Amino acid sequence: MSSNIINNYNRILGKINNSSVLLLPVSKFKPSSDILVLYNTGVKQFGENYVQELIQKQAELPKDIKWFFIGQLQSNKCKDLAYLSNLNTIESINSLKQLKKIEQHRSDYYAANAALFGNSTSNAIINIKIQINTSQEAQKGGLSSFEDIIPLLDFLTKEAKFLKFDGLMTIGSFTNSTNDDEINQDFEVLGQYKKKVNQEYNIPLEEIKLSMGMSHDFEKAIKQGSNEIRIGTDIFGSR
Ligand SMILES: *Cc1c(COP(=O)(O)O)cnc(C)c1O
Fold first, then answer.
1. Ligand 1 centroid vs 68 CA: distance in angstroms?
2. I want to staple 89 with a disulfide (CB 3.0 to 4.6 A). Which of 43, 45, 68, 142 is the partner?
3. Which atom of ligand 1 is nearest to the CA of 92?
4. What's the pLDDT at 1?
5. How many CB atoms lie within 10 A of CB 166?
6. 134 CA to middle of ligand 1, Å?
7. 196 near 205, Cβ under 8 Å?
């Protein structure tokens, strides 16, 4: 069982074959013991979808894990998330309101726990990816026009002290990820957003990371410029 997880992880690493692409294991609904199997081989970054589940796992697992939150974020959970010392990244941001809440709560948390961060605000910074609804599906999270992300980019680049713009994330439609086309239209759209952020904000391309690609579509995502693939099923098995 545990060797399966390691073999799966290594098999996907072998397919990536590109050091600028992070393989992020997504461990939602899977026990902490499954995470430990990979952790013990040196993997330190994991993605979770639910704040409550993340809090529980964060409490029972080693504190040098870097957690990535990739799920839909409700306003009333922003504080709980901001109070996780080893939260590295939030990828599913889709409003200025969320950003302001997280910034305020992280600032409060730092003020009361500076020693946890070696008295350096830079150690408390949370990386932020803005989620883009590239497929414009009504039920999906994320913003769906460049105009909509401008206030968030302005806040991140001009005001936030505890949040740092790190890139863009998309899930993409099931149809686009399962058809035979050479190119996934959603990944293409995310690439266009990246170019526009680069042009309008003068942020170097290598500082605008694209999180795209899951178990069934990561190979196309890598070909289309992904910097991070989020893999659950193909590593930990079906949920
Ligand atoms: C669950 C989930 C994943 C992993 O999906 P798999 O198809 O199991 O690899 C990736 N990204 C997000 C946002 C998810 O919710």
1. 12
2. 68
3. 13
4. 60
5. 23
6. 16
7. no
Give the whole-angstrom CA distance, residue 58 versus residue 51. 10
Q: Could you say which DSSP state residue 163 is in?
A: E
What token pair was written down for 133?
A: 């609804």
Cα–Cα dist 95/41, whole Å: 37
Place of tokens 């830079």: 122
* 132 to 136, 148, 210: CA distances (angstroms): 9, 10, 11
Summarised one tens digit per residue, pLDDT across range 136-171 is 999 899 999 999 999 999 999 999 999 999 999 999
pLDDT tens by residue, 95-139: 999 999 999 999 999 999 999 999 999 999 999 999 999 999 998
Under the banding of pLDDT at 50, 70 and 90, the label for residue 21 is very high
Burial of 86 (0-12, 13-18, 19+ CB in 10 A): middle
CA 57, CA 186: separation in Å to the nearest integer?
Answer: 32
pTM for the model: 0.97
For the CA of 238, the closest atom of ligand 1 is 8
Q: Is the CB of 23 under 6 A from ligand 1?
A: no
Give distance in angstroms: CA of 24 to centre of ligand 1.
Answer: 10
pLDDT classification of 218: cutoffs 50, 70, 90 = very high
Q: What DSSP line would sit under 26-50, residue for residue? A: B-TTS-HHHHHHHHTTT--EEEES-
